[in-house]
Specification:
74% helix; mainly alpha; two-stranded antiparallel ribbon
């Protein structure tokens, strides 16, 4: 069966193996590790990170990167909170659309500079990361958004239980993120316009010769990433309620880690948002588990997290190479057997 799987599906299978190994390791280190609260805690965090990792994946597929994504999440969370605080009767759908529009606006800025001004993405987004954060500080003017200013439907939304299985609660925010990731995955695998992201990332020159507007594709990727980051900002607001100017700080690095751990090629052209979702789960699982691991102090947590992520990537790469090599051997053996049968006939 493995020899019939595509390389991308083989990578996802390898990620599940790595995920199982991480779970098995921490189960031996932490008492009462497996319980419903572990899933509930991780799913609450992944509801935000999955959207941001998906946004980062769209950009990375085109051989670019967005280091401003954490600042976009923070600004959108604050701006959306300010909007709903001033207009408590606003429609939920309109509020979501507003958050995504704000995020898309930042994506337009990045996209124009990268796609049309031809400034390297790492330079542009490193600068806009600071600029967007400064805009948030100016916009906030020393104030904060508190949960008391938000309507009940917004703060209740993330923890609304849609259904539960054996004590494991599947909440609204997590399921919403899974649906969004699934829709993006279907678009990337089924829709021809979305496949242009892979074409541009794999070989920009060949894509241009094939008639693909490379600049438009890169610009669109940044705008869509901004819109998804805006949705992530809405989720951030709904989950935490209390928003300050440091909201979303560090998310840019986590989003890159989730995408790369999830098998997205940092040089563009290959990877899936499904893999990025599993990568986000893996990163959050490691981060959450380290909090409960008594052998690791808070001081060393980030270092151990980095080491475990590197280990996860290495194991994933080794498993992937072995699976592909095994598949090639099976294919060669099958071809040899077929040639022998034809020779005898």
């Amino acid at each position: 069966m493995l020899d019939r799987l595509s390389p991308q599906n083989l990578r996802i299978l390898a990620l599940f193996v790595v995920l199982g190994l991480v779970l098995a390791f921490f189960a031996t280190q932490v008492d009462n590790y497996f319980n419903a609260r572990l899933f509930n805690r991780i799913s609450a965090s992944v509801a935000i990170m999955a959207l941001i990792a998906t946004a980062q994946t769209l950009v990375i597929l085109t051989r670019n990167i967005d280091l401003s994504i954490g600042s976009v999440v923070g600004f959108t969370a604050f701006a959306t909170g300010a909007m709903v605080a001033a207009n408590p009767g606003i429609s939920p759908l309109l509020l979501v659309a507003y958050a995504m529009a704000v995020g898309a606006g930042f994506g337009v800025v990045n996209g124009l500079l990268v796609a049309y001004a031809r400034v390297p993405a790492i330079i542009v987004t490193l600068a806009t990361m600071a600029i967007f954060r400064s805009l948030l500080v100016e916009f906030a003017d020393g104030k904060s958004i508190t949960s008391q200013k938000l309507p009940a439907w917004l703060t209740d939304y993330p923890n609304t239980v849609l259904f539960s299985l054996a004590g494991v609660e599947f909440r609204a925010a997590f399921m919403t993120s899974v649906v969004v990731v699934a829709l993006v995955h279907l678009a990337l695998t089924r829709l021809r316009p979305a496949r242009k992201l892979y074409a541009v990332g794999s070989n920009p020159e060949a894509a241009e010769m094939a008639g693909i507007n490379q600049r438009a594709v890169v610009f669109t990727a940044f705008v869509l990433a901004g819109a998804l980051a805006g949705l992530g900002g809405f989720m951030f607001l709904a989950r935490f309620g209390n928003i300050t100017v440091v909201a979303g700080l560090g998310f840019e690095l986590k989003s890159v880690a989730a995408a790369v751990v999830g098998g997205v090629n940092i040089f563009g052209g290959s990877g899936t948002v499904a893999g990025a979702l599993i990568g986000a789960i893996l990163v959050d699982l490691i981060d959450t588990s380290l909090v409960r691991w008594p052998l690791v102090s808070e001081f060393w947590r980030e270092a151990v997290l980095g080491a475990l992520i590197l280990t996860a990537v290495a194991v994933d790469a080794i498993l992937m190479r072995r699976l592909i090599a095994w598949r090639l051997r099976r294919e060669k053996a099958r071809n040899a057997a077929r040639a022998a049968a034809e020779a005898q006939a």
